[in-house]
Amino acid sequence: MRKIKSIPSSAITPEFIFHERREFIKKLGLGSISLSILSSKSLLALSTIPSFTQAKDSLNQKLTSYKDITTYNNYYEFGTSKSDPYEHAENLNIDPWSIQVIGAVNKPFTMSIDELVKLAPLEERIYSLRCVEGWSMVIPWIGIPLNALLKRASITNNAKFVEFISLKRPSEMVGQKDNILDWPYREGLRIDEAMHPLTILAVGLYGKVLPKQNGAPLRLVVPWKYGFKSIKAITQIKMVEKIPLTTWVKANPKEYGFYSNVNPSVDHLRWTQATERRIGESLLSPRLKTQMFNGYANEVAHLYQGMDLNRNF
Amino acid sequence: MLLQSNHLLIKRFAFTLCLWPIFSICFHILNNNLGANPVEFIVRHFGKWSLIFLCLTLSMSPLRRFTKITQWILYRRMLGLFVFFYTTVHLFCYIGIDYHFDWVEIKNDIVEHRFVLVGFLGWVLLIPLALTSSEKMIRRLKANWKKLHRLIYVIAILGALHFIWLVKKDITEPFIYILIILILLLCRIKISKTNLKNKKLV
After folding, report:
1. B69: CB partners within 8 A, 6+ apart
2. Is the CB of A80 inside 8 Å of chain B's CB atoms?
3. Upstream peptide bond of A145 is cis (omega within 30 degrees of 0)
4. What integer pLDDT is reported at residue A4 of this predicted model?
5. Half-sphere exposure for A208 (CA within 13 Å, toward CB)
6. With contacts defined as CB-CB under 8 Å, which chain A residues touch B94?
7. A270:B168 CB<8 A
8. Is the CB of residue A6 less than 8 Å away from at least one CB of chain B?
9. How distant, in Å, are the alpha carbons of A157, A224, A282, B154, B186 from that of A191?
10. What pLDDT, on a 0 to 100 scale, did the predictor assign at position A32?
11. ipTM of model over 0.85
């Protein structure tokens, strides 16, 4: 019997990314100019993100290629096949875009993407993304911590959960013409999960402005949860008292839970959660062992202390 | 004589056509066209072709009935063996390429996931059918052969379930296969009813 390899720690960043990074360092050197570009031109009108702090690569894993990240997506708003988002997302009009922060907050507000990215310095975060279907990627996101946005709204004591609501626009999101899911897509987090420094709102990846098939202009990234928790094309963020009914829980409560933390010991009805296939690896590579909380146990396990994770899946 | 050599020619041609899934996957591999998840691509490729050949096999006797051309039935065994061949390739890709012969994980996957379980069961049930497909076995098993080979109806339903239980939400594609399989099975119920009537008349 062959043992499944755990995630290799020695994998090297591909060369072209290395060069790309050198470019960013140069750009960072021209910080003042970059900032003026950012303030004069809308982020959504740019292709690359002018200025951000590079990730301190804590994962040490080979990044999934830009091509794979942008052509293999689950985004049912554009169709149920993995290639549908890449093929159909182009028609979505995302400029202008506004995000509403409402509910149990002292200072509800609506802001544009350009205002949002000024709430905190943009940072690169290299996270592994584990899909509930048993595949994973390593993605260099660019974004701000979600807590920067929530702090700005000054949440009240009544706020126990955050509900995220995506866009419903069947004329441009062709997958919404079928009632496969209850549109618009909704997701949710507990307040402490939302305030956790690992939870980010992403506006870019690989140094570029977020492609539409990946959830432009703004998506959530919660690296210790299955990918479907990381809602795309967010329009509304609502502080609520009661646990929100999220799209996949509504669609199939037996298979999808509110928490949906990556957990190799809690199996899914359809797919094994003990192992995962890393996208972009060769035909001959073995599956990887899935890590508890997708490898972020040190950072997040304390959030779930005393909870029965088999019941609260 | 002429008819017979024609038949042989057609059969050879049909056999070559039946190898299409092999040609097409080689084409995809050579062109590096397997997408972001090549393992899934290959496993699903053979899974889908297994279902297609299953439908083709099941459509031979209804075709004989509706077109009144008996020759269709001559291809049924070959098509049935291709079902066994492609499901075996599908299974081996899953065991070898996807799971790298990790028998513990494979066992867990089969036991814990109903879609894997029904797929595996379907393949197991195909084994006796493939083993008894020769003329010799047909003669030896006599009436039992027909009974045994009715298992293909169970296998067809298992195959369709295997696909529908795999899919998360959008069941359009598996639904098409289920519809085809159900129609092909319904054709047979009709046949056996008319058979009964004929018997009563006699």
Report:
1. B63
2. yes
3. no
4. 52
5. 14
6. none
7. yes
8. no
9. 11, 15, 40, 51, 55
10. 42
11. no
Q: Cβ contacts (< 8 Å) between A277 and chain B: which residues?
A: 37, 39-40, 98
C-alpha span between B169 and A82 (Å, rounded):
13
B38 touching chain A per CB within 8 A: yes
State the Cα–Cα distance between residues A84 and A175, nearest whole angstrom.
Answer: 9
pLDDT of residue A10 exceeding 50: no
Q: Which residue is it, tokens 């076995």?
A: B137
B38 Cβ contact list (under 8 Å, min separation 6): A282, A283
Strands A234-240, A161-166: pairing kind: antiparallel
- Give residue for tokens 């070959």: B78
Helices assigned H by DSSP within B31-150: 38-67, 76-92, 103-112, 114-131, 135-141, 143-149
* Pairwise CA distance, residues A292 & A261, whole Å: 8
DSSP state of B202: -
Reported confidence tier of residue B192, pLDDT bands at 50, 70, 90 = low
Q: Which two tokens stand for residue B199?
A: 């018997």
Handedness of CA A188, A98, A122, A84 (dihedral sign): positive
Domains along chain A with CATH numbers: 52-300 (3.90.420.10)
Pair A269, A126: CB distance under 8 Å: no
A209: Cα separation from own chain's centroid: 14
Judged against a pLDDT cut of 80, whether residue B118 lies above it is answered with yes
Phi and psi torsions of B80, nearest 5°: -60, -40
C-alpha B69: how far from its chain's center?
A: 22
Tracing tokens 């379930």 back to the chain, one arrives at: B161
